[in-house]
Structure formats: structure tokens, C-alpha cells
Amino acid sequence: MAMTMHVDVVSAEEEIFSGPATMLFAPGVMGDLGILPRHAPLLTRIKPGEVRIVTDQGEDELVLYVSGGMLEIQPEAVTILADTAQRASDIDEAAALAAKERAEKLLADQKDDIDYAAAAAELAEAMAQLQAVQRLKKKLGQ
Prior knowledge:
The protein is an alpha+beta fold. The protein has 2 domains: 5-87, F0F1 ATP synthase delta/epsilon subunit, N-terminal (ATP Synthase, domain 1), CATH 2.60.15; 92-140, ATP synthase delta/epsilon subunit, C-terminal domain (Single alpha-helices involved in coiled-coils or other helix-helix interfaces), CATH 1.20.5.440. Helices cover 29% and strands 41% of the residues. It is built from 2 helices and 10 strands, in the order ββββββββββαα. The protein has helices spanning 93-108, 116-140, and strands at residues 5-10, 15-21, 23-28, 31-35, 42-46, 49-55, 60-66, 69-74, 77-82, 85-87. A hairpin with a 4-residue loop joins strand 1 (5-10) and strand 2 (15-21). The longest helix is centred in the C-terminal third of the chain and has 25 residues, at 116-140. The chain starts with a strand and ends with a helix.
């Protein structure tokens, strides 16, 4: 039997996942993290992106999107407190694509009244959502 750790992924709205996992990948602000059971304790911020949870001895992988938040690692448990989180299968691909195009257009305009930081953040979130959807489609063979 493979070693596992308990993983909880929660957002302000709901609990997205709670259960055992053999590995977890998360988008840390200083770089991507790969977490195995008995990982050293760590507390860090996460950026918008894809969280992948490997369950059932590597045969099952759950893909989630998080818009940022905090990640706490303990030797036997991992907790992600996300600003917002959703399963990749629940993401509206058309809405994410529209948000990406809107943010790219705002960044391309050279006007003084544009909040470039907000537009860049919107673009990063849209890109992360699209990457999560694309990974899920690739996994499902679509």
C-alpha cells in the first residue's frame, strides 16, 4: 500500500476536496511545488493556477483551479485555503477565453486610465483556468 497524506482544499464558498492523496502539485508564488507524504512543514502563498491531486496510487488525478490563497504542509496533511477554487470540469471555457481576450485588449490599449495591475491579474487568472481545462481535456483524450 502506498503512503498517503490527507488533503483538504477549501474556498470561502465550499469544500472542494477532502481525502487521501499520494502526491499534490500546486502553483507556489516562488515556483511550482510537488508534495509527497512526510514533506517538511511549510506555509506559503499560492498564485492563480492549477492544483493537481494524485489519488488511488497514481491512477486517479483530480485537476482543480485556484485563484490564489495559502498552502500549509504538515508531514501527514496538506491544506489549501483558496480565495476561489473549482474543479477543472466545472470551468466555463468560453467565459475564461472571453476574460483572457478582454484582459489582453486592455493591456494592449495605451491609455492612462487603465489599471494595468488589475488587467494583468485578470489575464493570469484566465490563462490559469484555460490551462486547467486544457489539461483535463488532454487527460480525457478530447
